[in-house]
Structures are given as structure tokens and as C-alpha cells.
Amino acid sequence: MAETQLPEIAGLSFEDALEELEGIVRQLEAGRGRLDDAIGSYERGAALKRHCEAKLNEAKAKVEKIAFAADGSLKTEAQNLE
Predict the structure, then answer these.
(1) Nearest 5°: phi and psi at 26?
(2) Is there a contact between 27 and 33 (Cβ–Cβ < 8 Å)?
(3) Are the C-beta atoms of 63 and 74 separated by less than 8 Å?
(4) Predicted local confidence at residue 76, as pLDDT
(5) Could you give the CA distance from residue 25 to residue 58 in angstroms, rounded to a whole number?
(6) N or C: which end of the chain has fewer CB within 10 A?
(7) Under 8 Å between Cβ of 44 and 8
């Protein structure tokens, strides 16, 4: 797909990028359209997938859990989501 469309992906929310990616997958699975269009859609889908993964990793890094410190006060710790 044209490179002029790829930078716009950076501004998409996770939900919007995922919705567009799901639409591309449905379109490709249906086999509609021309081969050149399918290749462009696949490339855009790959870029959307990377964007979604980056957004998830960003969110994962922000997740913290509340824990008690040794002195009984509250503190936050990075959450291990693995």
C-alpha cells in the first residue's frame, strides 16, 4: 500500500487499528478484489498488527499493582503479566 497511508496508522487508537485490521482480514479471507489490492491490504494489515502490538506493550508497561511495603505503607510495583 502507498507509504503515504502508513504514517496515519501511528495516530490510530488500539481499538480503531484493530477494527481496521479485522476488516482487512475479512476482506482477504473472502478473496474479493484484485491481487495488487490484496497485497496492499496485507501490507497495511501487517503495519496495523505492529501498531496494535506496540500499543499493547505500551499499556502492559504502564500496568502497576498496589502492594504493601515492609513498613506497611502502600507502594506500586510493575505488574508481571507473563
Answers:
(1) -60, -45
(2) yes
(3) no
(4) 72
(5) 24
(6) C
(7) no
Angstrom distance (rounded) from CA 79 to CA 63: 6
Q: What is the DSSP letter of 10?
A: T
φ, ψ (nearest 5 deg) of residue 11: -90, -5
SS (H, E, C) 14-73: HHHHHHHHHHHHHHHHHCCCCHHHHHHHHHHHHHHHHHHHHHHHHHHHHCEEEEECCCCC
pLDDT value at position 11?
93
Q: What is the pLDDT of residues 11-70, one digit of tens each?
A: 999 999 999 999 999 999 999 789 999 999 999 999 999 999 999 988 887 776 667 777
Distance CA 68, CA 51 (A): 35
The Cα-based distances of 18 to 12, 13, 50, 66 in angstroms read 9, 8, 11, 30
Q: What is the three-class DSSP state of 2? A: coil
